[in-house]
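Figure 6 in text form: structure in, sequence out.
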């Protein structure tokens, strides 16, 4: 029997063929293109003139707005934060595809979390996704798995759409219906979707397990970043930790307590590669202007 992703891809291929013969039909996204080689090279990585949005169209990310709000720049600007996230992603990619990958379960699945709310986990998750999307030989899937308080779409300035929970509850049939392309060729997004009183059970379901395995194993170039709820006091995060091979714990300098960080680590799978990003650390350039610093360190047992 064909797996879930194969069915989804076949469905979209059929829809695309129909759209070619009937101009009045809405454009359907071909998810196979997500993993095809880019014949146009680097210049096609960031499409600044995407088609108008609809339920099957791409998310249009305002890249200039993100840069102005402190995110990394994907428009050619040289910023300190770009260099910091390059350093962070190099270690994560080495874990995902290097020699350590053989010792990890789903090494290309990376969960980003924090001990408590408001420490910058979504900011970190979105920046990691943007940075990895600039790689020549990698593709990125950013999943908003913080189904209690989703913030990925808001952070990226995007409108709400159906997402992960609609798929898990069966409101949509195929994962392709909530797997949205963006105007960054190598980045796709799955929103959290609607809230649900059984979100813990949905995330722990066999359907979720099989879907994550598909994400992890079907394509050798794929990195999946899960923005998850804070680790302390939230059951969903502990469940999601069982799916990921790596965890990035965001720690706000001057706010996070050591006891909370230790408690967070205890809620993770001990077999994971666990790294820490120190967020909102104030430093100064040579001209005296301040900026936020981001530092990554990794725990190796």
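Output sequence:
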């Amino acid at each position: 029997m064909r797996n879930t992703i194969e069915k989804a891809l076949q469905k979209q291929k059929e829809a695309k063929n129909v759209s070619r013969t009937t101009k009045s039909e809405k454009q359907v996204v071909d998810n196979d293109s997500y993993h095809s080689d880019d014949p146009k090279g680097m210049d096609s990585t960031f499409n600044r003139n995407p088609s108008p949005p609809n339920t099957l169209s791409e998310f249009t990310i305002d890249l200039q707005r993100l840069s102005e709000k402190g995110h990394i720049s994907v428009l050619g600007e040289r910023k300190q934060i770009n260099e910091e996230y390059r350093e962070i992603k190099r270690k994560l990619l080495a874990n995902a595809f290097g020699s350590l990958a053989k010792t990890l379960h789903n090494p290309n699945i990376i969960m980003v979390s924090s001990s408590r709310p408001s420490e910058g986990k979504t900011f970190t998750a979105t920046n990691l996704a943007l940075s990895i999307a600039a790689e020549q030989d990698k593709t990125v899937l950013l999943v908003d798995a913080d189904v209690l308080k989703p913030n990925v779409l808001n952070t990226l300035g995007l409108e709400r759409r159906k997402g992960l929970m609609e798929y898990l509850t069966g409101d949509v049939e195929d994962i392709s219906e909530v797997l949205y392309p963006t105007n960054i060729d190598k980045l796709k997004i799955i929103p959290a979707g609607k809230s649900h009183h059984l979100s813990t059970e949905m995330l722990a379901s066999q359907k979720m397990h099989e879907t994550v395995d598909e994400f992890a194993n079907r394509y050798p170039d794929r990195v999946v970043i899960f923005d998850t709820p804070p680790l302390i006091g939230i059951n969903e995060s502990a469940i999601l930790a069982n799916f990921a091979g790596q965890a990035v714990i965001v720690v706000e300098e001057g706010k996070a307590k050591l006891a909370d960080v230790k408690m967070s680590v205890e809620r993770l799978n001990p077999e994971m590669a666990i790294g820490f990003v120190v967020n909102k650390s104030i430093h100064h350039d040579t001209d005296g202007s301040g900026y936020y610093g981001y530092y990554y360190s990794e725990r190796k047992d």
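Caption detail: The two ends are 40 Å apart (CA to CA).
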